[in-house]
Amino acid sequence: MTNQNVVVPEATPAITVAAAAKPPVLFPYPPPRGGGASAAAAIRKKHLSQVELGESWTNAWLESMKTSSPIHAKVAASAAAVPIIEREQNEHSAWIVRHPSALSKFEQLMKATKGKQIVMFLDYDGTLSPIVDDPDSAFMSDAMRAAVKEVAGCFPTAIVSGRCRSKLFDFVKLTELYYAGSHGMDIEVRKGTKYTKKKKTVLFQPASEFLPMIKKVHKALSKKTKPIPGAKLENNKFCVSVHFRCVDEKNWRVLLEQVWLVLKEYPMLRITPGRKVLEIRPIIKWDKGSALQFLLDSLGFADSKNVLPVYIGDDLTDEDAFKVLRDRGRGIGILVSEFPKETNASYFLRRPSEVMEFLLRLVEWKRLSLEDGLE
Ligand SMILES: [Mg+2]
């Protein structure tokens, strides 16, 4: 049903700070006395290798930032010759065949869900809210909030985001949902929701020992990135987001160099790319896909074949969740994107307004199913 066999593997850069920064040798200052020319040469060699390591790390990430920017591809296409545009249009059409619109295939999708319990997982930024220059102003509309509320009345529904959980709740403001903040490293299963019998709210925070480290890194990065116009840091409790949406491209290298200078001291942290954001997080094996599995377990659906998770997200970090669905062989992954992208999702929606339309159609389908006695 989910045409998983034709999904293109993801292209997330396999670069981590830990891998790049394994030998974080510091150039001692002041240089040690004595030792003669050979000691000085050894120190110089170490220093150079550190600089080279930093440079290759910066170059790799600079390339990643450019290639993950759809605007780059768009500008390149418009500046290119017509045959290239035609070729891109053909590639776009081929991509849509492999990843059809979840709206145009809605009836077909719903037939496949017959008799199954849908569990909804929704990313926040770029999925429920528009992507905006100021991450603190990424508000969802009242209409979207009402749609999510209605969906949560029909199906267990969770929000899974890179934001810290408290900020996420401030944006969404719905108590009937489950919240997984910090890329799933801060999960709250609230008591008293329609779908859980839990007598008390349960918190799951697999990276709690990293809290002091994340605080230090946030502080150090604040200092280092302050002089870079447009750079914005966000402390998301178990991770730090370095937003570069408003940083002029000519300053991307400087920004990366500053990030490198801080992170080379913290091999237990890694970076993952997002939409005009670098996400700095603990190197533990826990991501949005793990959060999806944890929430399914918590809701008592771990081994049920009659459960159909639906995950909607727009970012590279959502690919971990799409991959879990793909590996399970059950579930519907929906990528929110205006442009073709390599993805583990099976369907796509163009933008948050289409997500809202999809959610409302789901609610209507549920209502009609109940009226027809199909549920
Ligand atoms: Mg997002």
From TrEMBL:
It holds the Pfam family Trehalose_PPase. Its cofactor is a divalent metal cation. InterPro entries: HAD-like_sf (IPR036412), HAD-SF_hydro_IIB (IPR006379), HAD_sf (IPR023214), OTSB-like (IPR044651), Trehalose_PPase (IPR003337). It catalyses: alpha,alpha-trehalose 6-phosphate + H2O = alpha,alpha-trehalose + phosphate. It is an enzyme of class 3 (hydrolase). Keywords: Hydrolase. The keyword Membrane does not apply. Pathway: Glycan biosynthesis; trehalose biosynthesis. GO terms for biological process: trehalose biosynthetic process. Its EC number is 3.1.3.12. GO terms for molecular function: trehalose-phosphatase activity. Removes the phosphate from trehalose 6-phosphate to produce free trehalose. Belongs to the trehalose phosphatase family. This is Trehalose 6-phosphate phosphatase. It comes from Musa acuminata subsp. malaccensis (Wild banana).
